[in-house]
């Protein structure tokens, strides 16, 4: 089957074509329509489902763009306020409606007539969301959303000076590959000291999130947040006990191999003791790999690699580049980490990362590229909720691209 990366924004049938999420007053009439609409046939239910999903897609993409813009520029107060406004003023008002719409779907006599194979996972997730919903958790979850992004605001400001030049922590990490051990240790300690400079603020943030998450779990009838989160993530196919078994297997079979690799590393570097600043180092006389110099070079080389696997894969990245859906290079004021953010209406997702010219950056790029291809391939699915998949499945596409 031939695939095309010439992706098109989904047409709207329920919302006006020029509708933009500005505030709750503009959004509420559409939620009221769906909440009060009478469903008198299977055809009514299918039309209602499409309208629900169209509204959810528009809201989802708006929220995603707010997060993308804020993480790309954590020092821009207007972008921070736009994100916080959505999380504190819009999302909390959506949640009660979302719960009522979920219940309306499950309680409809026509839901039983939906294609069971097609709607099984969708309806299972809806029932799960109904089970977990608590009014008391709405303000807590709003605060958690804002606080969770606070880490990026703090970390985005972190820089260190090496050889008289300022570097982000991601850029400075390349010195940890240098054959000069004294330089590696010096940079490692500078990075650690810079992080410790924000210790009090980060500890307070962590404690606040921990307390709120625990309260969310208690409100929902769980003993702890771990058990609540396990269900929230939709882990229907295995238990936490299976996770314990996996952890034990890693300890028994994988850790001995890791220790052997560290021993081999120590021997190769000619060291008597391996320290944290030695893990990524190359022996004397071997230059660390520098597969690219700029974000532009990174994306062009990745497109070439993807083309060799399948031209469609390269076309997906090329389309994203043409749309401005890439922000790859590390810089001051940018949140740490990397992600592929699906855009429910537009279809072509956004890749965010902090590249600094290292081999690990290539791994991140192809990993997020795998997620992106997944987004392209799922775009034409009938309903927005059909495109929601658990982490275990999402990572199949991304990890596969790492292995290629």
In brief:
Among the domains are: 24-135, no CATH class; 238-279, no CATH class; 295-403, Collagenase (Catalytic Domain).
How are the SSEs ordered, and which strands pair?
Layout: H1 24-36, H2 42-72, H3 77-107, H4 116-132, H5 137-155, E1 159-162, E2 165-168, H6 169-172, H7 181-197, H8 199-219, H9 225-232, H10 240-269, H11 295-309, H12 311-323, E3 326-329, E4 339-341, E5 350-355, H13 359-378, H14 391-403
Parallel strand pairs: 3-5
Antiparallel strand pairs: 1-2, 4-5
Measured as a percent range, the helix fraction is 55-70%
Tally the beta strands.
Answer: 5
Largest sheet: 3 strands, mixed
Low confidence ranges:
none
Order of helices and strands: HHHHHEEHHHHHHHEEEHH
Structural class: mainly alpha
Q: Specify the number of helices.
A: 14
Q: If you had to describe this structure to a student in words, what would you say it looks like?
A:
This protein is mainly alpha-helical. Among the domains are: about 25-135, no CATH class; about 240-280, no CATH class; about 295-404, Collagenase (Catalytic Domain). It is built from 14 helices and five strands. The strands form two sheets. A three-stranded mixed beta sheet has the order 3-5-4, with helices on both faces. A two-stranded antiparallel ribbon has the order 1-2. Helix 2 (about 40-70) runs antiparallel to helix 3, helix 11 packs antiparallel against helix 12 and helix 13 (about 360-380) packs across helix 14. The longest helix has about 30 residues, at about 40-70.
């Amino acid at each position: 089957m031939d695939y095309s990366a010439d992706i098109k924004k989904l047409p709207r049938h329920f919302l006006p074509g020029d509708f933009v999420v500005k505030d709750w007053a503009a959004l509420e009439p559409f939620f009221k329509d769906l909440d009060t609409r009478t469903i008198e046939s299977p055809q009514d239910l299918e039309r209602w489902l499409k309208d629900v999903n169209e509204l959810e897609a528009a809201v989802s993409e708006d929220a995603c763009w707010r997060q993308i813009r804020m993480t790309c520029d954590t020092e821009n107060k207007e972008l921070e306020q736009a994100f916080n406004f959505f999380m504190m003023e819009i999302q909390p008002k959506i949640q009660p409606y979302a719960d009522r719409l979920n219940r309306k779907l499950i309680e409809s006599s026509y839901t039983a007539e939906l294609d069971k194979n097609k709607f099984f996972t969708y309806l299972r997730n809806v029932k799960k969301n109904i089970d977990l919903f608590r009014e008391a958790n709405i303000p807590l979850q709003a605060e958690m959303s804002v606080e969770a992004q606070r880490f990026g605001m703090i970390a985005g400001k972190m820089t260190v000076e090496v050889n008289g030049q300022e570097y982000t922590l991601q850029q400075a990490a390349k010195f940890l590959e240098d054959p000069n051990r004294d330089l590696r240790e010096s940079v490692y300690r500078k990075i650690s000291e810079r992080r410790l400079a924000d210790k009090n603020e980060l500890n307070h943030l962590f404690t606040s999130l921990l307390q709120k998450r625990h309260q969310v779990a208690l409100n929902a009838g769980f003993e702890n947040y771990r058990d609540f989160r396990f269900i929230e993530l939709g882990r229907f196919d295995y238990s936490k006990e299976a996770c314990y078994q996996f952890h034990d297997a890693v300890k028994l079979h994988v850790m001995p191999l890791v220790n052997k690799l560290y021993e081999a590393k120590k021997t190769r570097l000619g060291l008597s003791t391996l320290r944290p600043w030695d893990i990524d180092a190359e022996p004397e006389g071997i230059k660390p790999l520098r597969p690219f110099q700029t974000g532009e070079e990174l994306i062009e080389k990745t497109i070439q690699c993807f083309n060799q696997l399948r031209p469609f894969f390269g076309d997906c990245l090329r389309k994203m580049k043409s749309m401005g859906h890439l922000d790859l290079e590390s810089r001051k004021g940018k949140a740490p980490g990397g992600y592929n953010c699906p855009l429910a209406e537009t279809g072509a997702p956004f890749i965010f990362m902090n590249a600094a010219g290292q081999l690990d950056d290539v791994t991140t790029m192809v990993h997020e590229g795998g997620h992106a291809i997944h987004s392209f391939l799922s775009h034409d699915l009938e309903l927005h909720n059909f495109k929601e998949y658990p982490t275990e499945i999402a990572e199949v596409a991304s990890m596969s691209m790492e292995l290629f």
